[in-house]
Amino acid sequence: MNPPRRQKPAAQEPENPRPEGPGPGTASPGARPAAGAAARFAALPLRIRVLALTVTGALLAGVAVAYTVGAARRAEPADPVSAFGLDHGQLYFRSTGAGTGRVARLPATGAAVSPAAHEPGRRTTGGPRCDRFYAAARTGLCLTRRPGIPPRSYAVVLDEQLREKRRIGLTGIPNRARVSASGRMLSWTMFATGDSYATTSFSTRTSILDTRTGYLIKNMEDIPLTLDGRRYHAPDVNYWGVTFARDDNTFYATVSTAGKTYLVKGDLHRWRARTLRENVECPSLSPDNTRLAFKKRVRDGARDPWRLYVLDLRTLQERPLAETRSVDDQAAWLDDATLAYALPGKESGSSDIWTVPADGHGSPALRVPDASSPARVP
C-alpha cells in the first residue's frame, strides 16, 4: 500500500496584502518589455523561431490533453448504491435497453418465457453498471470499461449486496466473466488486441482471483500446458472462457495456438493444464459437473461460424443443441436442464437473452429482451 501523500501546509497570507496590478491612472509596466521581447524574437533566425513555435505548440497540446483527461475523470459519475442484492431464485443480467449497462433481475422461473421479461418496467433495475457481469452464491463480478485517454477497464468484485469489495485495474476490452458455484473463485478475460473470436487477429489476457486468499493470477498463459501428451510452449498461446468445478480447484478453459482451439482441463493447486479435445470454445460447466456447454466452429470465416454443443465429460460424446443460430457467448446454465445465452437484438448494440434445453431437443425461447450476461442465483 502506498503511504499517504503528505499535504502541503496552506500558504499564509500577509495581513496587508499588496494590491495586484497597476494602480488607477498608471501605465502598465509590462508594455515596454513586451514590445522589446517581440522585437528580439523577430530578430532571431527563422530556423530558431520555427523550432520555438513548434516546441511551444507541443507543450500547449500536452496541457490541453491533460486538462481534457482530468476534466473527463472529474465529470465521470460514480455508480450509485445498488437497489438490490444477490438473492436466491433470481435471474440477474445486464440491461442493454433502458438503463443501458446496469444490472437488473427477474424471478428465475425456468426456461419458459416470463411475462415480466417483456415489460422492462417490471424488471428490478438499479444495479451496478457493467460491460460483463456474472454472479454466484454471495459474490458478483462486474467488468467495466470507462471512457478516457486512454480508456480504463476494471474487474470489480461485489459482495452479496452488490457493493464493491475490490477493484482491479485492467487493460483491454471486457469479454468473459465467471464466478465459481461457491463464490470463491473468479475469472475474467479481456481482449488485449482485437475484439472478436471470429478472426485470428486477436489476443486475450485471462486472470483468476481467489477471493478467500486474495491471490491474483494476472495472466494464466504461464501455466504449464500439455498438448497431445507433450509439454507445449508457443508465443501465440491464448486462454479464455474459464469455468470452475465445485472443488474450486479444477477448471476448464479454451486455449488457442497455431490456428486451432482446444478444451483444457486445469488444476490450480498443481498449476498445470492439459488438452482434452479440439474445437471447443467458451466452455461452461453444468451445476452437476457432468457436462460442458460450449460453442463449436462449424464453418470457416467470420460469418456465423459457431453452434452450441454439450459435451458429456464421462463419455466425451458431444450433442448439438436446438439453437442453430451462431452464438458468440459463454452460455450459462440456469439449471441442469437449461442453458441461457445472448444473441444480437433488433436495435444496433442491443442483445436478447435466449434459452434452450441442454439435451438437444425442444427449441430456443426468448427469455429476456434487451439483456445480456445471464446469471442465475439458485
Structure explained in plain terms:
The protein is 11% helix and 40% strand. By secondary structure, it is mainly beta. Residues 1-34 and 63-78 have low confidence and may be disordered.
Quick summary of this structure?
The protein has 378 residues and is mainly β. The chain has helices at residues 31-43, 46-75; strands at 90-95, 103-107, 132-136, 139-146, 152-158, 164-170, 173-179, 185-193, 203-210, 216-217, 225-227, 230-232, 238-244, 250-257, 260-267, 272-278, 281-285, 291-297, 306-312, 318-320, 332-335, 338-344, 351-357, 365-368, 371-377.
Question: How is the secondary structure organized here?
Answer:
Blueprint: H1 31-43, H2 46-75, E1 90-95, E2 103-107, E3 132-136, E4 139-146, E5 152-158, E6 164-170, E7 173-179, E8 185-193, E9 203-210, E10 216-217, E11 225-227, E12 230-232, E13 238-244, E14 250-257, E15 260-267, E16 272-278, E17 281-285, E18 291-297, E19 306-312, E20 318-320, E21 332-335, E22 338-344, E23 351-357, E24 365-368, E25 371-377
Parallel strand pairs: 11-16
Antiparallel strand pairs: 1-2, 1-25, 3-4, 4-5, 5-6, 7-8, 8-9, 9-10, 11-12, 13-14, 14-15, 15-16, 17-18, 18-19, 19-20, 21-22, 22-23, 23-24
